[in-house]
Write a structure and sequence with these properties.
single chain; alpha+beta; 7-stranded mixed sheet; 23 strands; about 35% helix
Length: about 500
């Protein structure tokens, strides 16, 4: 009798395999980073083969730590960095080019041409998305236009597309030997090719981007009792286990936070920051710079999303590029060692600004530097930037939904930083709640897979698993909060449109 459910959590900087028991507690976890490839300014790539190798390693590592075998697993779910685009040969399993990462901005000319042609409102009405370099469709077009011979191969059926969920599931279920070429609706809604109203690939959009329909994966429910397929006995799991859960990372985190009802929200602090508000069966168009997206699909529910491109990645930049910290954990005591930022603001628009501004020409800016400024002030300004960006998104979400958010549920790797979470409460003026299991992205994918095979019988069982670790209440007075936010908004204005200036 299987005791556990597991999930592959394939993120922007690394891959984690987590095994959960029926109470939603972590039994074992293993994590591996992969390389970030920057061929030129604004370009961000991953080696898809390396990602699959790391996935294999994490699966074996976690199972070995807990002495778990394939027969102990009821099911496996997959969650992933969204929008990151892979095109590969289904006969050989070899990618034709590196994966183009969601942060990549090389498709600016494609996007600008569509904006100039007046396609913005038409595309948003179909997909819920603004025209931006963020999404998959312009990345696929770029690959077809720039990789020699690829368009001809695609038209002959020798090239297939997937975001990272599709790539991992295809390999996990057999790869070139019959792997399942599928995606779920939450991931499909991030491609700029899914029509939110018909819940199908849109032929007019495919024609606009010049993408053959045969390249696209089959659309399947996020939690699928019919199963996507099984792991192979010779694969990394070492046996035949159902693969039947698939959610984009932020939708998975919403599911893992058991935010199943309209009006419930969460914010995930990872490479970027992503705030999702469940809007139920209602497709809510945004007038404030947010995205409308599929939250999950069994019975389809939708969400409003505020996507922030750079959050934890700014801390990684301090470590890897500036080398002023050794690891992310250092930021907590360093930032606490000063009372404020000394007037410094850091707008980490490395790849443009996402919600609510959608300015692909913005670039990173540090303002307010004086001779008084120290390393400590810059580190603190980096943490405050994460919180100020979140406040901008929450204000946009409250405007769109008409519902003031009183409490913010948080998750992701960065929420371990108590000082960051206290700053978030202070800058928002709202209560911040951290759950016991903060890796809710993997948990949400595990929940989706476990529900599909009956390991969990109902959403109420999942709600019963959720527990509070710590609550952070705001401590700043209103004057300090508003003065700091006004300074942030001035700094953002200076970052906007930099490449056009």
């Amino acid at each position: 009798m299987p005791n556990y459910v597991a999930a592959v959590d394939q993120g922007t900087t690394g891959t984690r395999f987590m095994i959960f028991d029926h109470a939603g507690k972590v039994v074992a976890s293993h994590y591996e980073e992969h390389h970030q490839i920057y061929p030129q300014p604004g370009w961000v790539e991953h080696d898809a083969r390396e990602i699959w190798d790391r996935t294999r390693t994490t699966i074996g590592g976690a199972m070995a730590k807990a002495n778990v075998r394939a027969e102990h697993l009821a099911a496996i779910g997959v969650t992933n960095q969204r929008e990151t685009t892979v095109v590969w040969n289904p006969k050989t399993g070899e990618p034709y080019y590196n994966a183009i990462v969601w942060q990549d901005t090389r498709t600016q000319p494609i996007c600008q041409k569509l904006i100039d042609a007046g396609k913005s409102d038409w595309i948003r009405a179909k997909t819920g998305l603004p025209i931006a370099t963020y999404f998959s469709a312009p990345k696929i077009q770029w690959l077809l236009d720039n990789v020699p011979g690829l368009r001809a191969r695609a038209e002959r059926g020798e090239a297939i597309f997937g975001n990272i969920d599709t790539w991992v599931i295809w390999n996990l279920t057999g790869g070139k030997n019959g792997g399942a070429h599928i995606t779920d609706y939450s991931n499909a809604s991030r491609t700029m090719l899914l029509n939110l109203h018909t819940l199908d690939w849109d032929d007019e959009l495919l024609q606009l981007f010049g993408i053959p329909r045969a390249m696209l994966p089959q659309l399947r429910p996020s939690s699928d009792p019919k199963l996507y397929g099984y792991t192979e006995a010779l694969g990394p799991v070492g046996g035949r286990v159902p693969v039947c859960g698939d959610l984009g990372d932020q939708q998975a985190a919403l599911f893992g936070q058991v935010a199943f009802e309209p009006g419930e929200a969460k914010n995930t602090y990872g490479t970027g920051c992503f705030l999702l508000l469940n809007t139920g069966k209602e497709i809510v168009p945004s007038k404030s710079g947010l995205l409308t997206t599929v939250a999950s699909n069994g019975e389809t529910c939708y969400a409003l999303e505020g996507s922030i491109a750079i959050a934890g990645a700014a801390v990684q930049w301090l470590r890897d590029n500036l080398k002023i910290i050794v690891n992310a954990a250092e930021t907590e005591p360093i930032a606490q060692s000063v009372a404020d930022t000394g007037g410094v603001y850091f707008v980490p628009a490395f790849n443009g600004l996402f919600a609510p501004h959608w300015d692909m020409y913005a670039r990173g800016t540090i303002v307010g530097i004086t001779r008084y400024t120290t390393r400590e002030h810059i580190v603190r300004a980096t943490l405050e930037a994460i919180c100020y960006q979140t406040r901008e998104v929450i204000e946009a979400m409250e405007k769109d939904s008409g519902v003031p958010l009183k409490t913010l549920k948080v998750d992701g790797g960065a929420v371990k930083n108590n000082f960051l979470m206290q700053l978030q409460a202070d800058i928002l003026g709202k209560t911040v709640v951290r759950p016991i299991v903060n890796e809710t992205t993997a948990l949400g994918a595990a929940y989706a897979a476990g529900l599909a095979v009956g390991f969990w019988k109902s959403l109420d069982e999942l709600r019963a698993n959720w527990g509070v670790d710590r609550v952070f209440e705001p401590q700043w007075d209103a004057a300090r909060r508003e003065e700091g936010y006004a300074g942030w908004l001035r700094a953002v204005e200076r970052a906007k449109g930099w490449l056009k200036a």
